[in-house]
Design a protein that fits this description.
- Its EC number is 1.97.1.4.
- Pfam families: Radical_SAM (PF04055).
- Keywords: Iron, Iron-sulfur, Metal-binding, Oxidoreductase, S-adenosyl-L-methionine.
- InterPro entries: Aldolase_TIM (IPR013785), NrdG2 (IPR012840), Radical_SAM_PqqE_MftC-like (IPR050377), rSAM (IPR007197), rSAM_sf (IPR058240).
- This is Ribonucleotide reductase of class III, activating protein.
- The chain is of the alpha/beta class and 245 residues long.
- The chain has a single domain, classed as TIM Barrel, CATH 3.20.20.
- It is 29% helix and 20% strand.
- The chain contains seven helices and eight strands; from the N terminus they run E-E-H-E-H-E-H-E-H-H-E-H-E-H-E.
- An eight-stranded mixed β-sheet has the order 1-2-3-4-5-6-7-8.
- Strand 4, helix 3 and strand 5 form a beta-alpha-beta unit.
- Helix 6 runs parallel beside helix 7.
- It is globular, with a radius of gyration of 18 Å.
């Protein structure tokens, strides 16, 4: 993560140090089709084995306050299409709605990366978010094994229902993304997941090649999950993306 990090000492007097870990000033991959800045929120209670931002799992990774982050964004107004709040888990921050409103006042569209860990906090962002990238961890029955936390599955599916309601109300676009880990998934479970998402009304989906703690791909994409899985996902969704590590 080539981000701008400003230490607590650099925060304006009285601003306080909020749980931000840094900013990627320009990204073309965090919001498909948009050039954005990405703000990283520190902290995540889940422990997915393929996490590519594992250094942000602890709240202590927060070194940047919002006024400093906003100043970085303000310098890029006119060059960016928007800002994506990512993590960690962005909805962990109780100030998230305020940050989004502030960024929108700068003229930036608002994107969100979330794993759906806090469904009601996601619901509270209705009307503030233009695009949601929701991590769908696995097929029904397999989510807790990915996150390492019992009860994760119910939260994730509830968050999906909330996100779909936000789409139906015309306030947000949604992409469901699944990171692939052959240690916990099979081709059959991926077919099942595609069918489950389609049945719920998902129209935009993506599969992403998982990486290990050293950043190496977890599998040979030429061998797994196989063309039959990719064709199935391509057939079921209006827009489908396959993303290599």
């Amino acid at each position: 993560m080539n981000s701008i990090c400003i230490t607590e000492a650099a925060a304006p007097a009285g601003a306080g140090c909020l749980p931000l870990a840094g900013i990627e000033p320009f990204s073309s991959c965090d919001w498909p089709g948009r050039l954005v800045a990405t703000v990283f929120v520190a902290g995540c209670p889940w422990r997915c084995g393929y996490c590519h931002n594992a250094t942000l799992q602890a709240r202590s990774a927060g070194v940047l306050d919002w006024p400093a982050a906003r100043a970085v964004l303000a310098q890029r107004v006119g060059f960016l299409d928007g800002v994506v709040f990512s993590g960690g888990e962005a909805t962990l921050a109780p100030q998230l709605a305020d940050w989004m409103q502030d960024a929108r006042q700068l003229g930036l569209a608002i994107g969100l990366h979330t794993a759906g860990i806090y469904p009601q906090r996601l619901a509270a962002l209705k009307g503030l978010v233009d695009w949601i990238g929701l991590d769908i961890k696995a097929a029904p029955g397999g989510v807790d094994a990915v996150t390492g936390v019992p009860g994760s599955e119910a939260r994730m599916w509830q968050a999906l229902d909330i996100a779909l309601d936000m789409v139906a109300d015309g306030g947000a676009a949604l992409e469901c993304r699944t990171t692939l880990d052959p240690r916990l998934m099979t081709a059959d479970s991926l077919h099942q997941l595609a069918a489950s998402l389609q049945a719920k009304g998902v129209t935009h989906a993506a599969l992403q090649q998982g990486r290990d703690a050293k950043g190496q791909p977890l599998f040979d994409a030429a061998q797994w999950p196989g063309q039959a899985v990719l064709d199935d996902w391509q057939r079921r969704f209006c827009q489908f993306g396959w993303r290599h590590a």
